[in-house]
């Protein structure tokens, strides 16, 4: 066990706050190791009612600026994890993603394994997996908000009827023009998120690749393409409404037609804590139910429904 007194910073969501028992158990576990515990101020205010008096006196609030910790704990789903990763930025603090909901590729440590995960941290029985991040520039300048994405950057139409035209260059060479509802540039981490839902490929995190996948393309010949993450991707957008949306890990902003977007790999990576058997392939099998007999699952759900009815 490490002799160092560790500091943990906890992020959470409202959905993650729905299980006060787990939150109290987590903090009690950290207290048993004499850890220093910080909880993001807004989240602490939200869960204040669920913390017992003993615990309230052992935790400290923190702001999202200039904080330090040995580990980040994200309580929620993948959305909460992405927010935590965005706020951590290039601080290089490893993140422990705890799934407080249903599906979770990033937040893939179950609530039941949370205590044993903390034990593994103190026993130095874990690995740190580094995930690549992409960066958006507009007209060769950073966007005014957080320009980094762990999952994906999506260029999307704003109105219901009209598609947009997205002209793509890779390392200065013209690739093609997509007439579509949008385009998603995904990291391997994001390949199991939005990109997967629109037909993009699943990419193993260590493959050093990016995928470019159209959203509802006008031509069926427009297929996803995988490129090196060392590529410089340039996008120019035409729109009938003369504007469009850009979503960076779900953080969206309106852009004007004529804005040139450049996407490249960032200089920093996001560090994710992995414990024994908590691997990418195990997560794929579990979350996508590979090898499961869907007929049996459907039959089981029908039986449960009939019982409840």
Automatic annotation (TrEMBL):
<feature type="binding site">
    <location>
        <begin position="192"/>
        <end position="197"/>
    </location>
    <ligand>
        <name>NAD(+)</name>
    </ligand>
</feature>
<keyword id="KW-0521">NADP</keyword>
<feature type="binding site">
    <location>
        <begin position="78"/>
        <end position="79"/>
    </location>
    <ligand>
        <name>NAD(+)</name>
    </ligand>
</feature>
<keyword id="KW-0418">Kinase</keyword>
<feature type="active site" description="Proton acceptor">
    <location>
        <position position="78"/>
    </location>
</feature>
<feature type="binding site">
    <location>
        <position position="83"/>
    </location>
    <ligand>
        <name>NAD(+)</name>
    </ligand>
</feature>
<dbReference type="Pfam" id="PF20143">
    <property type="entry name" value="NAD_kinase_C"/>
</dbReference>
<keyword id="KW-0547">Nucleotide-binding</keyword>
<dbReference type="InterPro" id="IPR017437">
    <property type="entry name" value="ATP-NAD_kinase_PpnK-typ_C"/>
</dbReference>
<comment type="similarity">
    <text>Belongs to the NAD kinase family.</text>
</comment>
<keyword id="KW-0963">Cytoplasm</keyword>
<dbReference type="GO" id="GO:0046872">
    <property type="term" value="F:metal ion binding"/>
</dbReference>
<keyword id="KW-0067">ATP-binding</keyword>
<dbReference type="Pfam" id="PF01513">
    <property type="entry name" value="NAD_kinase"/>
</dbReference>
<keyword id="KW-0808">Transferase</keyword>
<dbReference type="InterPro" id="IPR017438">
    <property type="entry name" value="ATP-NAD_kinase_N"/>
</dbReference>
<dbReference type="GO" id="GO:0019674">
    <property type="term" value="P:NAD+ metabolic process"/>
</dbReference>
<dbReference type="GO" id="GO:0003951">
    <property type="term" value="F:NAD+ kinase activity"/>
</dbReference>
<dbReference type="InterPro" id="IPR016064">
    <property type="entry name" value="NAD/diacylglycerol_kinase_sf"/>
</dbReference>
<protein>
    <recommendedName>
        <fullName>NAD kinase</fullName>
        <ecNumber>2.7.1.23</ecNumber>
    </recommendedName>
</protein>
<keyword id="KW-0520">NAD</keyword>
<comment type="function">
    <text>Involved in the regulation of the intracellular balance of NAD and NADP, and is a key enzyme in the biosynthesis of NADP. Catalyzes specifically the phosphorylation on 2'-hydroxyl of the adenosine moiety of NAD to yield NADP.</text>
</comment>
<feature type="binding site">
    <location>
        <position position="216"/>
    </location>
    <ligand>
        <name>NAD(+)</name>
    </ligand>
</feature>
<dbReference type="GO" id="GO:0005524">
    <property type="term" value="F:ATP binding"/>
</dbReference>
<dbReference type="GO" id="GO:0006741">
    <property type="term" value="P:NADP+ biosynthetic process"/>
</dbReference>
<feature type="binding site">
    <location>
        <begin position="151"/>
        <end position="152"/>
    </location>
    <ligand>
        <name>NAD(+)</name>
    </ligand>
</feature>
<dbReference type="GO" id="GO:0051287">
    <property type="term" value="F:NAD binding"/>
</dbReference>
<dbReference type="GO" id="GO:0005737">
    <property type="term" value="C:cytoplasm"/>
</dbReference>
<dbReference type="InterPro" id="IPR002504">
    <property type="entry name" value="NADK"/>
</dbReference>
<feature type="binding site">
    <location>
        <position position="181"/>
    </location>
    <ligand>
        <name>NAD(+)</name>
    </ligand>
</feature>
């Amino acid at each position: 066990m490490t002799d160092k007194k560790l500091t943990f910073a906890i992020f959470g969501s409202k959905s993650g706050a729905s299980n006060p028992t787990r939150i109290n158990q987590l903090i009690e576990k950290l207290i048993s190791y004499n850890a220093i515990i910080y909880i993001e101020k807004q989240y602490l205010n939200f869960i204040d009612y669920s913390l017992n008096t003993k615990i309230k006196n052992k935790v400290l609030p923190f702001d999202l600026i200039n904080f330090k910790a040995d580990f980040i704990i994200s309580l929620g789903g993948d959305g909460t994890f992405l927010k935590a990763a965005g706020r951590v930025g290039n601080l290089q603090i490893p993140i422990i993603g705890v799934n407080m909901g249903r599906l979770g590729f990033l937040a893939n440590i179950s609530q039941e394994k949370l205590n044993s995960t903390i034990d593994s941290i103190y026993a130095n029985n874990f690995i740190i997996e580094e995930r690549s991040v992409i960066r958006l520039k507009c007209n060769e300048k950073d966007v005014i908000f957080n320009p980094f994405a762990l999952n994906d950057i999506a260029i999307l139409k704003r109105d219901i009827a009209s598609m947009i035209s997205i002209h793509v260059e890779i390392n200065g060479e013209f690739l093609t023009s997509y007439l579509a509802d949008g385009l998603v540039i995904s990291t391997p981490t994001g390949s199991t998120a939005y990109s997967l839902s629109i037909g993009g490929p699943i990419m193993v995190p260590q493959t050093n690749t990016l995928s470019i996948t159209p959203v509802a393309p006008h031509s069926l010949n427009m297929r996803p393409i995988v490129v090196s993450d060392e590529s410089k991707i340039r996008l120019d957008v035409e729109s009938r409404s003369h504007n469009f949306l850009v979503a960076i890990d779900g953080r969206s902003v309106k852009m004007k037609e004529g804005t040139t977007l450049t996407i490249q790999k960032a200089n920093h990576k996001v560090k994710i804590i992995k414990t024994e058997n908590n691997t990418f392939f195990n997560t794929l099998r579990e979350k996508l139910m590979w090898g499961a007999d869907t007929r049996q699952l459907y039959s089981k759900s029908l039986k449960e429904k009939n019982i409840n009815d």
